Amino acid sequence: MAITLKSHREITLMHQAGRILASILAELSTAARPGMTTRELDHLACRWIQEAGAEPVFLGYRGYPACLCTSVNDEVLHGIPGSRRLQAGDLLSLDLGLRFHGLVVDAAVTVIVGDSVHPEAARLITATEEAFWAGCAAAQPGNRVGDIGAAIEHVARRYGYAVIADYGGHGVGLGLHEEPSVPNTGPAGRGPLLRAGMTLAIEPMLTNGSGETVVRPDGWTVVTKDGGLATHYEHTVLVSETGPIVLTMAE
Ligand code: MF3
Ligand code: CO
Predict the structure, then answer these.
(1) Which atom of ligand 1 is nearest to 169's Cα?
(2) How far apart (Å, rounded) are the C-alpha atoms in residues 84 and 231?
(3) What is the Cα Rg of the chain in Å?
(4) CA 178 to centroid of ligand 1, rounded, Å
(5) pLDDT tens across 36-69, in order?
(6) Spatial distance between the Cα atoms of 110 and 232, rounded to a whole number of angstroms
(7) What is the pLDDT of residue 157?
(8) Is the CB of residue 170 less than 8 Å from the CB of residue 198?
(9) For residue 115, how far is its CA from the centre of ligand 2 (angstroms)?
């Protein structure tokens, strides 16, 4: 399928969907206290999506069994919620998508569970968010997809961290995964041309290890090969005439 440009109506709905998603992700981040299981977080996510008049989009996607992805410490993404109890100091990524009036938005955030101090994890989160904002700033009409990845990679390198290159972002909106794919690496100046009306999930994943990954036998959970910590930060972004607009913000 070619890259879709969204209509004004579709963008308005994605913006509404994005506000709902952002507030649910913020509530989940607050709810993630030590002692809680990741399955309990998933149940909250499913319930809050339904209460907002939206639908989960991960549930059933290629057989994925939950509304939410919960990836802890060395887990990079697609962690399946279960009986694991969160502990203070855990590095927890929450990745959530929803469909609202037919339009899909996708976002993720990484938090440290509890009130414990974990300087390395905090620095990794800062780097990942900064990498996102650098990638987002490159999401301008006339730029290319590779400019986003190059900007992300540049920030990660500056912090001395590795980008997880095996996974990346994607077009989103009419479905969860649309063209183009949005790698978290360069080179700049390559890949599809960005045009106003494109909606992209930009989602850097960083690690303090080598960046190599393996998939657990559950077929979903992606973990770092060397046990390094991993973080994930994602928003759905509109490429507009006036520059990038983040659709998945609470406001
Ligand atoms: N944000 C993730 C992605 O774009 C979440 C997908 S989870 C899945 O890959 F279960 F839906 F695959
Ligand atoms: Co995504």
Answers:
(1) 4
(2) 18
(3) 17
(4) 12
(5) 999 999 999 999 999 999 999 999 999 999 999 9
(6) 6
(7) 98
(8) no
(9) 28
